[in-house]
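Sequence and structure are kept together here, with a separate record for every protein. A complete record is shown below as an example:
=====
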Amino acid sequence: MPTPPSSAITSLPTSPDDERRTRMIKYAAAMGIRMICIAACFVTPGWWLLIPAFGAVVLPYFAVVAANTVVNRAGPAVERPGALLPYSPSDGRL
């Protein structure tokens, strides 16, 4: 009787909790950089003020887009354990 191929644990997709956690970390890091840009607006003189102000205004958009992007790294299809084997009457098996 042939044995069905087994799936390795590394071929399983990322769990939703782990994937959500990584997206939350990316968003928090982007918002931290935005806070630094806002603080830099108070100490930056002259027209150089436009650089941190631009970062403070534009960065939330990119942070939200990055946080809502779900990366689906689908590997090979995971088969359920105990796969059905085909039966043919000529085999003589029951």
Remarks:
- The chain has a mean pLDDT of 80.
